[in-house]
Amino acid sequence: LVLLDANWDGAKRYLKENMGKEVVVGGIAGRLTHFLIEPFIPHEGEFYVAISSSSDGDNIFFSPEGGVSVEENWDKVVQLHVNVLEGIDSIDIKSKLQKSLAGQIDAVEKFIRALYKFYAETGFAYLEINPFAIHNGAVVPLDMVAKLDDADEYWQRKRWNGLIFPEPFGRSLSKEELFIKELDSKTGASLKLTILNPDGRVWTMVAGGGASVIYADTICDLGFAKEMANYGEYSGDPNTEETYYYTKTILDLMTRKKDPRGKMLLIGGAIANFTDVAKTFKGVTMALEEYQKKLQDTGVKIYVRRGGPNYEQGLKLMRSLGNRLGVPIEVYGPETHMTRIVPLALEGASQ
User: Fold this and answer.
1) Are strands 190-195 and 124-135 parallel, antiparallel or unpaired?
2) Is residue 325 within a helix (H) or strand (E), and if so which, with residue range?
3) How many domains does the chain have?
């Protein structure tokens, strides 16, 4: 949604009419909550610059033909490769730029050099300014898109100053997702939860980010994508209390609504490197015992596969729990393939 050629009063009327309004973008419905108001900058030429990262370094793309026609004139784009260990200072940018820039070449060269240093120091994964103009001798960005690398969040905590990554358009976090997100922010471990289908029958509690992807893919490959209730992971050696609250949150969601066909809980993961399996499983068993009656009433079957430090003790906790919980629990160790519990849980389960 764009309002052009408006004065301040017109902009305020537009905001009043559209703030909080529900719209559909790309088939996704969401409410408008944020607006950008920018002054019009008189200009003649429009330029393009973008920076992206790859495995062998960073790449800078520049064109004197920016704006909507940049792709049509891609033959005019100049590409500069930057070795991340050497930086940009050793690169002669001016010699690479088109001579047609004439008197603007100094301003453009200075801007590209400063922009790259900002990109490299601030944790960007991609940055595009299209177009930018030169007004009264100064560079003015007219439109921009950028991607930050959230894996760099720890190192950028001072520069980002508490930056909050927004949720995708049309999606707001549930109370449970917010709780896990807050729990995650207070620990050195990793605790993630996304609710996909609260009425789904297949729930997962997977240790490890990589393992969570593999489990999700396996569930989908077996035809149960629509029954997949959640996606997430716990890793980085969370303590017993953190694992308890993580498990409790999932069990609370899982047992709110019954399904005559029953539900499955997959507690899986690879062979841990340093996560204490016994310690984390103690938190899991505490939550399972607390939800014993609800698990029985909901018809939940539990499948466990884990390995790593103290895994024997952890699996023993699970097996002994199964004997007194009154809920079917199948427990497997590292001798069993990581995703074997997925077909075991889904075989015979009607879709």
Assistant:
1) unpaired
2) helix 311-325
3) 3
